[in-house]
Structure formats: C-alpha cells, structure tokens
Amino acid sequence: MADARTLIVPHADVARLMPMAACIDLMSDALGALARGEALLPLRTVLRLPGGRSAFAAMPAVLGSSIGAKIITVFPGNDGTPYDSHIGVVLYFDSEHGRLLAIIDASSVTAIRTAAVSGLATRLLAREDASELAILGTGTQAMTHLDAMRCVRNFTSVRVWSRKRENGERFAREAQARFGIEVQVAVSAEHAVRGAQVICTTTAAREPVVSGEWLWPGAHINAVGSSIPSARELDTEAMVRSRLYVDRRESVLAEAGDFLIPREEGEIDDDHIVGELGELVLGRIPGRTSPEEITLFKSLGLAIEDVASARLIYERAVAEGSGTWIELGGLR
After folding, report:
1. Is residue 80 scored above 80 in pLDDT?
2. How far apart are CA 125 and CA 121, in angstroms?
C-alpha cells in the first residue's frame, strides 16, 4: 500500500540519533562526496529582514540520491532570550517519488553538524599535540564545538570568552555538568586566544574579535560565527598569517567577510584559499606542512551537511520507532 506519511523528528531526539562523533564521520563522507562532484548545491537564498541583521534563508541540495532543504530564520539578537539564533526545519524527500519523508528540527541539526565540520577540520589540520582550546562566544555553537573538539583532541586546558562575563560563567558551569570539564572564563578575547593551539570563534560579532598578533605559531582556527560579506571575526593579519581552508570556494567568495574584507584591502587574493575540506578528506590537497604554521578553516555551512544529517536521523528514527508520523497528502 502506498504511504503518504511524514515523520516529525523533534529537537529532543536529534542529538541522540546523531551523536557528535558519528556526525564528524558523516560530514567527512558528505564533503568528500561534494569534492567528487556527487552533489547539486546552489548558493543559499538569503532574504535580509527589515533592520538588516536578521534573515530568512532557504538551503536546498541533492547529495547522491538524497534530496532535502533547510528552511531557517537567523536572528542573532536572540542571544539572552529563550530562543536559538537559528530556528527552522530540515525537509528530507524520497528520491523515487518526491515524497516528503521527514521534517526535522533545524536548530539542533545546525548546532551539531556545524560543530562536527569544525571537528573534522581540527582532526585534519590541528597539531596532534594540541592541548589548549579557546572558544570565543557562549551560545549554542560554543557548547557543541566543545563537544566536537573533545572528540578529536585531548585538551588539558579550555578557556572561554564572552562579552558578558556572566555568560562565560554560565557556560563553564554547563560544560562542567555536561562533560566534566573545567573551563576557565577568560577576562578578554586576547587572554583566551594567546597560547591556544585550537581556537573556535562562534560569536555574532560584526567586527574582529581575534587579532593576528595573538596567534601562537602552530595554532588552528575554526572561524564559524560570521556568514555575510560585511562582518568578520578575524582581523586582516589573522587571515594573512593563516593557511586558509574552506567548506566551499563558491560560498566563501560570495559570503565570507573574514576573507572578502582582506581581499578588498589588497592583502590577499583568491589563491590564498588552499582548498576545500572535502579535497583534504580525499587527499587531493596538502594539510598542515609544518608544526609552526597557522591553519584556518572558514566555515559557512552547506546544505549537503543538512541533507546528510537528515538521511541519518530519518533512518535511525525509523529503525528505533522515534518521532511522530503525520499525514500530509501526496497520494492521488
């Protein structure tokens, strides 16, 4: 009998169905497939809402035989409210008849898969002996990035910085409760960054919060927070000093202020991009070439990451009977 049911997977189920370690491997497979040409991935459509800071975005993609899209709002001003900055759904479709198979909470998918890609970049690029971690920002991405970093390196020191110290203290308490990790609250971004071998920037900053002069030789940076041409978390010196890896060239050339602003200043050109993370996964480009060089992964987030996540979550939810089925139609 034909089936027109759609599975709803709520926030509470996503983290259990897609744990961080599994998601890091999943992202490696997805980005490798992109590098092999096995995906259709247009640039996301972003509508800037009145005021210019918040946005509504549509991110469709086809990955192999998997079809999906993320529909999401991005409200950076939600910091300090009960709401995530990224709210929406991931839609997952059947490739045979085009049926809508699943509607999955996008806040949790975005939080996990974004950090997982940073975890992959850190696994591939950071020094093996990296032991000091700095996280700038204390929102949802900060906590999932701590989870991802724990999966790929053994850190003996973790520092967090927030513009509001109370947010840093809250983050430290939650990290202790969740992971049993002691986190030091840094008095400044500089205090957090100096000496760190891995740095994750997960802020909503529009102006740089990291200066290149603070970077320790051999550091690796995951720059995550900025995704528009007019905003950046890293200053020009930080970009110039680093070997730059990206999730996708086309996206960085269209959206990444961290890259575009130094290019506009004439300090770098397009050749500053060493390559895409998927190319590194496949061994087509070199990774770290010396213990002293600084590596940088600029993350923008790709729809194929959401589609790969949706496929895994749907398959696991069906196997264990999670979620709620609804009738949406589609049968004649």
Report:
1. no
2. 6
